[in-house]
Write a structure and sequence with these properties.
Elements lengths: L6 H6 L7 E4 L3 E5 L9 E5 L11 H22 L3 E5 L15 E6 L16 H12 L1
Antiparallel strand pairs: 1-2, 2-3, 3-5, 4-5
Bound molecules: guanosine-5'-monophosphate (5GP) and zinc ion (ZN).
Zinc ion binds next to helix 1.
Protein name: HIT family protein
InterPro entries: HINT, Histidine_triad_CS, Histidine_triad_HIT, HIT-like, HIT-like_sf
GO molecular function: catalytic activity
Length: 136
């Protein structure tokens, strides 16, 4: 399941070279070309799925396992003290490449803010209304 116009399909399947950290039958982990921090990597499935909502359940499990393994390796080798997993779906969420991927962003003790937002202050009624909208 490839998309001929998709750059991540080409990278994941080795048609375009990349700095590969890990590869198996179904996945490739590469260094991001525009890294947020030293070691910023992307986990790519070799098959094309635009986003999380297209991704089969078994890939979800596999990819989180790869994230865990690569994260542990980065902590050991790069000396990072933390790690953000970031995964964008849709333009409004900041997704720029429509081939599902998970960002692995090693974090160091430098105080930088990368994944951050200003917390809102919803009332109890607002929270209940949102809960009912989603689940009711
Ligand atoms: P998104 O914004 O879709 O969640 O993330 C796309 C990521 O892919 C960005 O961090 C960007 O730097 C990275 N990227 C875009 N094109 C390439 C490429 O050709 N090679 C690599 N290694 N990374 C890319
Ligand atoms: Zn693709």
């Amino acid at each position: 399941m490839r998309n001929e116009e998709c750059i991540f399909c080409k990278i994941a399947n080795g048609e375009i070279p990349s700095n590969t950290l890990y590869e198996d039958e179904g996945y490739r982990v590469i260094l991001d070309l525009g890294p947020a921090t030293r070691g910023h990597a992307l986990i790519l499935p070799k098959d094309h799925y635009a986003d999380l909502f297209e991704l089969p359940d078994q890939n979800c499990e596999q990819m989180l396992k790869i994230a865990k393994k690569m994260g542990a390796l980065m902590k050991e080798r790069l000396g990072c003290s933390g790690m953000n997993l970031v995964q964008n779906n849709g333009e409004s969420a900041g997704q720029t490449v429509r081939h599902f991927h998970i960002h692995l962003i090693p974090r160091y003790d430098d105080g930088s803010r990368i994944v951050a937002w200003t917390p809102g202050e919803p009332s109890a009624e607002e929270l209940a209304e949102i809960r009912d909208t989603i689940c009711g």
